[in-house]
Amino acid sequence: MPQPDPHIFKTQVYYEDTDHSGVVYHANYLKFFERAREDIIGIQRLSDMWHNDGVGFAVYTADLRYQDGAVFGDLLEIRTRWEKQGDYRVVFFHEAWRPKGTKPAVTCTLELVCLGPEKRLMPIPDLEIFY
Q1: What's the CA dihedral at 8, 9, 13, 19 to 10 degrees?
Q2: Can you tell me the distance from the alpha carbon of 99 to that of 113, in angstroms, rounded to the nearest whole number?
Q3: Does residue 2 belong to any structural domain of this protein?
Q4: Pick from 23, 53, 57, 109: CA 20 to 30 A from residue 120's CA?
Q5: What total number of domains does the chain contain?
Q6: Does any domain span residue 1?
């Protein structure tokens, strides 16, 4: 079961994040969610794992639901919970909230797997955030 209190990551919506209609281009939410995960695990830790051990994470599945498009100038609050499911997979539950929103603008259930050298599946390293 995911932890009860979400991790909060705030991100600004820039003009470059939007499409011709003025709302955030759908694929850019994946960038926002990626930044939240990097904030959770720690950029330095991820960098060390990659450069020193050849270990990283890859998206296995992503299921996004769009309900209310964010717009240029919004300061989004990305709320994230996660759950380790076995030795090889961790699932992140993301919600992007607009200022004064009454429901998430976008939700995402995203599964990550851990890859070692030569891009082979490997057990997730002992990171305290996954326990």
Answers
A1: -80
A2: 32
A3: no
A4: 109
A5: 1
A6: no
Q: Are 78 and 8 in contact (CB under 8 A)?
A: yes
CATH number at residue 29: 3.10.129.10
CB 59 within 8 A of CB 14: no
How does strand 56-66 pair with strand 106-115? antiparallel
Q: Is residue 58 part of a domain?
A: yes
Q: Residue 8, Cβ neighbours under 10 Å: how many?
A: 12
Number of neighbours of residue 131 by Cβ within 10 angstroms: 6
Q: Are strands 89-97 and 106-115 parallel, antiparallel or unpaired?
A: antiparallel
- 63-105 pLDDT per residue, tens: 999 999 999 999 999 999 999 999 999 999 999 999 999 999 9
The parent domain of residue 121 ranges over 7-130
User: Any catalytic annotation for residue 53?
Assistant: no
Task: Give a yes or no: residue 81 inside a domain.
Answer: yes
pLDDT confidence bin for 125, thresholds 50/70/90: confident
3-state SS assignment for residue 129: helix
What pLDDT, in 10s, does the model give residues 31-63? 999 999 999 999 999 999 999 989 999 999 999
